[in-house]
Write a sequence for this structure.
């Protein structure tokens, strides 16, 4: 009997096999569908289309500090410097082939869901124009607060999912199998529960995971949900973290964990480990963000699969009203006992960032916790000012220290 | 107040309509409902007896908006927010705000939170337009806005109210269309600035009144052929500040076609008058031309522009880019390429709502215009 793999080994194996399958898709009669990270990919999986996420590939390049180089190339192609760095680096990759991975296979079709942003739709359209390929826009209107309106929004989305199925049937010339969709949904629901369980382990004190672990652990939920291996991976991951909890192992030792922080927005990918170290030196651990929670779906398997898919995808944090988003974040503050927050104004991501100033106002008012707001770019180093951000972080921790000191007086 | 304007007065009012709106609502005792671009069905607001006003930025300084929207937000969104936060907010009783792009995704939330005492409703326009569900959705949204306005005002409207509103709006668009047609063939009959001032004012003041002025203005136009002019097409969302049109006028450029929201795309919003009014308003949504930032097909944009260019025998295309409008920016490189491949001359004009000095734009535009006139085209 072979030895049980660790979650890290499993992640590598799943990713390698997935990419290998993707690169040989056409030989096996399969198609490659480019997808936005938040999109009802269960339909792709059920229809045997291999989903590829240009965002993930972009993350690899941006984390490896290729951002400035790639983004400069795209400016020479006539695009402006303030578009999303994922899109910019991807368009530059198409032109130059520069990548720190093996790259990604070329698409046959596109699924763009704007619950995340409208940028992806525009970006996919640019790619589709090059190859004259079909794009399906799954349009998710902002999930406004009124209950009746929400019902209407879900209805509109269900109609579109039916259209999406028609689109897939047309492109592949194959009939869609609803029974298969049910199986995929079951696996997706299972892995989503486990993924959330993993994220929620940040509740423990000291927290066994930081947001950086969550970000690494998130990848499989993004590109492999709806598969058995995804379920197995999160089961293993949860078991491993539970073992740490049982032994009292935290990201920081219990006595050092002073600040349990919330992070708003995507990470600054090329500062990933620097930020973890820097914050750690002040006794700070970033526990979570709404961003990592975006893939903890709550599918209701008793409902029509298309309805529960629509309900889940339309209600992601990025597609919710600012007030709802504040509620979701406030809930996390309570659940994870957080006492600090870092709000990143990400020049790249207007869809998420333009809500940040208002969100910060609401959250500081509701929680009484001061916030650190800083502006930069998630992938383009040219917009990152090292000294300025370091000074802001230092000043922020001084404020927190002072407040804690006053509290204990 | 707006029923007996000369063209000159119309240009003045269009530059800053708010003092006149303020006075008018005081006299009439009406409420004002503002909206931003695009596609909010004004007729519905009008049918309730409110004055629908499209908010189109300000060139006054930004004071409050930057703390809500960073500097890489599009100039129009920041300018609109500034206008209501610092300058004209008191004028509006409520807003119906559309969602069209990433920038506008949370804008109605931001407005709602900043104006807790006002009525704020969203209008969730579909961002795909070619499938049957889009039609279903537009109808739902129009119906929802009607019921929301009804809840707010405590009033119900009948089909008759909607048809009356549609009639006034259609008349406005027909008049503008006629004036535009005259100008196309007789460029000296009115300036570009005057034409687009009428388009703008029409979206901000009471149309029943303005229509009276438009009729008289139309009658007064001189029908004179003038060969000194060069025909061009204007492509984009809006073209502000209005002094940009002076540059066209000074160089004797005749705008003979456009895809602007404060232009042809507004006129294209004539509502069919059969069936029931909500269906008719829905149908209108899909009859309008392509709206680049939100729709899903740049080829359509290109085809539309190309057809316009050919039909009008224009000499060039001027593309108006609003600073930081990323929706335009994703399309622009390909659009430029497609247009260039057709052998059509194109110039991109970067506009910014808080621009006070046009010297930079002037130099570039004039150089382009000169090459256009001196060239072998
Ligand atoms: S970073 Fe933001 S703008 Fe870019 S793809 Fe992701 S959600 Fe869209
Ligand atoms: S479409 Fe462009 S101009 Fe209009 S609000 Fe969006 S970003 Fe601004």
């Amino acid at each position: 009997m072979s030895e049980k793999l660790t979650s890290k080994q499993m992640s590598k194996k799943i990713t390698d096999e997935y990419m290998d399958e993707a690169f040989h898709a056409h030989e096996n009669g399969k198609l490659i569908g480019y997808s936005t990270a938040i999109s009802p990919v269960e339909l792709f999986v059920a229809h045997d289309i291999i989903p590829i996420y240009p965002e993930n590939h972009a993350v690899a390049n941006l984390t490896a500090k290729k951002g400035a180089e790639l983004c400069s190339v795209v400016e020479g192609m006539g695009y402006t410097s303030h578009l999303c760095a994922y899109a910019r680096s991807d368009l530059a990759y198409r032109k130059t082939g520069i990548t720190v991975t093996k790259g990604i296979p070329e698409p046959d079709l596109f699924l763009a869901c704007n619950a995340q942003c409208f940028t992806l739709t525009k970006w996919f359209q640019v790619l589709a124009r090059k190859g004259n390929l079909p794009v399906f826009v799954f349009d998710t209107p902002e999930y406004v607060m009124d209950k009746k309106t929400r019902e209407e929004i879900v209805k509109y989305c269900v109609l579109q999912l039916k259209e999406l199925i028609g689109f897939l049937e047309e492109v592949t010339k194959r009939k869609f199998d609803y029974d298969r969709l049910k199986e995929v949904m079951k696996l997706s629901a299972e892995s989503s529960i486990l993924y959330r369980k993993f994220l929620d382990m940040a509740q423990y004190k000291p927290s066994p995971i930081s947001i950086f672990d969550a970000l690494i652990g998130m990848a499989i939920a993004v590109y492999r949900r709806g598969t058995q291996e995804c379920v197995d991976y999160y089961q293993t991951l949860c078991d491993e973290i539970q073992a740490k909890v049982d032994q009292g192992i935290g990201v920081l030792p219990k006595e050092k964990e002073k600040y349990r922080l919330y992070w708003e927005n995507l990470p600054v990918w090329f500062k990933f480990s620097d930020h973890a170290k820097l914050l750690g030196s002040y006794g700070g651990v970033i526990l979570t963000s709404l961003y990592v929670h975006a893939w903890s779906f709550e599918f209701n398997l008793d409902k029509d699969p298309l309805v529960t898919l629509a309900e889940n995808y339309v209600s992601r944090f990025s597609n919710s009203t600012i007030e709802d988003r504040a509620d979701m974040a406030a809930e996390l503050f309570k659940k994870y006992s957080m006492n600090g927050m870092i709000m990143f104004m990400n020049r790249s991501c207007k869809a998420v960032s333009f809500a940040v100033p208002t969100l910060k106002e609401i959250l500081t008012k509701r929680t009484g916790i001061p916030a650190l707001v800083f502006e930069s770019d998630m992938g383009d180093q040219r917009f990152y000012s090292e000294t300025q951000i370091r000074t802001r972080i230092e000043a922020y921790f001084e404020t927190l220290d002072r407040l804690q000191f006053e509290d204990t007086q | 107040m707006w029923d007996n304007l000369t063209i000159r007065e119309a240009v003045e009012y269009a530059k800053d309509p708010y003092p006149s709106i303020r006075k008018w609502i005081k006299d009439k005792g009406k409420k004002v409902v503002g909206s931003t671009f695009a596609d909010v069905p004004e007729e519905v607001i009008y049918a309730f007896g409110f004055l629908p006003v499209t908010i189109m930025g300000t060139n006054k300084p930004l004071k409050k908006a930057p703390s809500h929207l960073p500097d890489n937000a599009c100039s129009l969104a920041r300018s609109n927010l500034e206008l209501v936060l610092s300058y004209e907010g008191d004028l509006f009783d409520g807003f119906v705000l559309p969602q069209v792009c990433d920038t506008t995704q949370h804008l109605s939330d931001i407005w709602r939170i900043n104006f807790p005492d006002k009525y704020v409703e969203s209008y969730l326009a579909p961002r795909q337009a070619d499938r049957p569900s889009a039609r279903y959705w537009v109808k739902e949204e129009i119906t929802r806005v009607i019921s929301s306005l009804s809840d707010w005002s405590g009033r119900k409207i009948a089909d008759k109210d909607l048809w009356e509103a549609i009639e006034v709006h259609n008349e406005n668009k027909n008049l503008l269309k006629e004036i535009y047609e005259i100008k196309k063939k007789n460029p000296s009959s009115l300036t570009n600035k005057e034409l687009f001032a009428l388009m703008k004012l029409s979206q901000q003041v009471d149309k029943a009144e303005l229509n009276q002025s438009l009729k008289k203005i139309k009658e007064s136009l001189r029908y004179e052929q003038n060969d000194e002019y060069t025909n061009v097409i204007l492509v984009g969302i809006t073209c502000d500040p209005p002094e940009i049109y002076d540059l066209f006028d000074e160089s004797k450029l005749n705008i003979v076609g456009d895809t602007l929201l404060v232009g042809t795309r507004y006129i294209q919003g004539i509502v069919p008058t059969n069936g029931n009014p909500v269906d008719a308003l829905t149908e209108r949504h899909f009859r309008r031309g392509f709206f680049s930032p939100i729709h899903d097909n740049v080829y359509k944009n290109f085809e539309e522009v190309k057809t316009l260019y050919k039909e009008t025998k224009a000499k060039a295309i001027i593309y108006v880019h609003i600073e930081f409008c990323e929706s335009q920016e994703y399309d622009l490189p390909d659009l430029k390429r497609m247009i260039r491949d057709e052998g059509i001359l194109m110039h991109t004009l970067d506009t910014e709502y808080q621009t006070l000095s046009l010297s930079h734009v002037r130099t570039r535009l004039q150089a382009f215009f000169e090459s256009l006139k001196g060239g072998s085209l």
